Amino acid sequence: MPETRPSMSPRALLAPRKASSSTSTTRTGGGTTRLAKPTFSPTTKLYEGERLELIHHLVTLRLNGALHLAPISPQPHRILDLGTGTGNWAVDVAVKYPSATVHGIDVSPTQVESYPPNVRFEIDDVEEPWTYTYSFNLIHGRYLAGAIKDWPRLLAQAYRQTTYGGWAEFHEFDMEFLAENPETRGKIRETGIIDEWSRQIADGIRDYGYEPEPGPKLREWLAEAGFVDVTQDVFTMPVGDWGRQEDLREVGGLTLMALLDGITAMSLRVFTAKGWNLESMHVYLAHVRKSLQDRTKMREHKLYVIRGRKSHLKVRH
Ligand SMILES: C[S@@+](CC[C@H](N)C(=O)[O-])C[C@H]1O[C@@H](n2cnc3c(N)ncnc32)[C@H](O)[C@@H]1O
């Protein structure tokens, strides 16, 4: 596993950048120029692609630089990224494993325009039958909450298309927020507007037939699909820069920024479907944002990292 502290993703060298985040260039030891970590100001209005880039950065930071935790072979041949979005992860993993062809699939053509030659972006629906004639050493999906209707079916396809000894790995955030309990100084499930808001979003996503919280369920689903050595790690993600540890303060600050920026996009479809008019929704979300910025709550939520291996032994399912 690569455990170096992440700086800016190598993709940043290649991708056209929008104006609202600022970057600076540094020289690396090898003499190449690479962009330093992006700086996002709390007032920055992010484009969706930039929000995904911010989330890619903060997740990688939380995982101490690792792009995956599955112990895949050091020279993989094929890697698949489901719902690749802008392709941040696919591009970084392609740079890390030049031996591999990395396929990034998404229903939307929102991928970066410049990328390494071993990346293939494909526009497709991962819930449709897969037509690949080859298998993958690693199948990865991140932040697909609300995107997938039938996870067991998706994982059955992933199992079929994983090489023997290969891995599937998923990274998903929880919708449940925890806040400081002043009496015990431990964390308890948040009550109040943040919990109310996140429940409404989760229920609304469910009403559309999608799974809003796959994180806690993926361990069981992977095992049911046939994967072995299924392992789950749960990482605390502070919401806000209130923590004692410097690296977690940075993760928390970026997490808060991504949430503050993303809640309108996350809420729009669900709230309008529930009959809210736009004005009432914006007033409500202003209260949610105000509460999110209350540092005394010392809020956190969870990042689930779940992976499983396809056994070398051929098992019939
Ligand atoms: C929240 S984004 C996460 C993107 C990326 N995995 C990341 O971590 O930055 C979810 C992505 O899943 C894509 N998506 C949703 N449903 C999909 C489907 N059925 N097949 C392929 N992609 C899908 C969306 O277009 C979107 O780009």
TrEMBL record:
Q: One GO molecular-function annotation for this sequence? A: methyltransferase activity
| Record region (Disordered) | 1-41
What single Pfam family name could you report for this chain, choosing any that match? Methyltransf_23
Instruction: Please indicate which superkingdom the organism of origin belongs to.
Output: Eukaryota
Which SUPFAM superfamilies does the entry link to? S-adenosyl-L-methionine-dependent methyltransferases
Please provide the record's keywords in A-Z order: Methyltransferase, Transferase
* UniProt xrefs under CDD domains: AdoMet_MTases (cd02440)
Per the record, the GO terms for biological process are: methylation
The protein's name is S-adenosyl-L-methionine-dependent methyltransferase
Q: Which organism is it from?
A: Lineolata rhizophorae
